[in-house]
Amino acid sequence: MSVWDELVGQQEAIDVFRAASESELASATSHDSAMTHSWLVTGPPGSGRSNLAYAFAASLLCRDGGCGKCSDCTQVAARTHPDLATLTTERVIISIDEVRALVQSSQYSPAVSRYRVIVIEDADRMAERTSNVLLKALEEPPERTVWILCAPSEADLIPTIRSRVRSVRLRVPSVPDVAKLIVARDGVDEVTAERAARHAQSHIGMAHRLATNPEAAARREETVRLVLNIMTVREAVLAAARMIEIATDDAKAITEERDGVELDQLRRSMGIAEGDAIPANLRSQVKGLEEQQKRRATRSLRDGLDRILVDLLSVYRDVLRLQLGVSDELINVEFENELRAAAAARTSEDTLATMEAIGEARERIDANVAPALAMEALLIRASRSEVPA
């Protein structure tokens, strides 16, 4: 099985990257139309941007073009290949020091492969000053260095970087394609996989979580029920508070287990047995890890709130479809009776206004507005969309 086999619904993008990695001229001339030294993979969350980036990296570093079985492919999958450098952040932004270190490492020659490949996930999280540090590396790249950036859209990067990369846009994979992947990869039944893929709106990572984590699926179901049952301002305020609790619980579930594993690994690397006190000269390392984990928790909470808002958007999308007389392809088909009641209780104009309010809430939370205020304002707006009897 090659590195391309688990990529869902992205055949056009795969063809572009395969042509580049297989090009006979890639190592001979910069005039080769298939290969270039810098790439930008864009697409909506869950479309598989980073998966495609690492598949391309494996195809460049593998002697067989990404066989998926050799030590090169295995090391790329584990992010341990000596000619692969990666930058992914669990914070709100990528720091300038992180990019400087990566740019410096890009000057090294490949150790064992044809190329040295550098992948930056979430490249949209770079401030302009940080982006300018990367720009210099893209303007004068070493001969055998390949940069692969990942971002939701080209507009998320500064124009000077966009002009120096070759962009490959990913599409949203279909629900059947994602469900098929979940069945094959996670071993769940077809009904569970289809429901998870539909609720995740083809977001591959979220579909996996909903299909394999009953608690995550239950939290989503509660979110949908909450918004469909809001009738008054008081209920809107209470629902906003509960949704923040749901997002917090979800974030904790994602981070707590990982935090414990990281701390255990750090203790072992420092030779400290479980239960032993940490020597004073090593406490700074533990403190550094704890601060990193706090930053990750902050981002995880923000991501959890955004997932809730995306779920709310799916509810009002279904309501609008019913108002327009289109009853097929509902995302939340399990709640069809409640959706029909909501559709009858408001106008399509109000539904559209509520959907716009969800977009505004996402922007406000991203701009560090207090989540409670943003959620309350949104749900109060939604509660006032009811048509008076």
UniProtKB/TrEMBL annotation:
GO terms for biological process: DNA-templated DNA replication. The keyword Lipoprotein does not apply. InterPro entries: DNA_Rep/Repair_Clamp_Loader, P-loop_NTPase. It holds the Pfam family DNA_pol3_delta2. It is an enzyme of class 2 (transferase). Keywords: Nucleotidyltransferase, Transferase. Transmembrane segments: none annotated. Its EC number is 2.7.7.7. GO terms for molecular function: DNA-directed DNA polymerase activity. This is DNA polymerase III subunit tau.
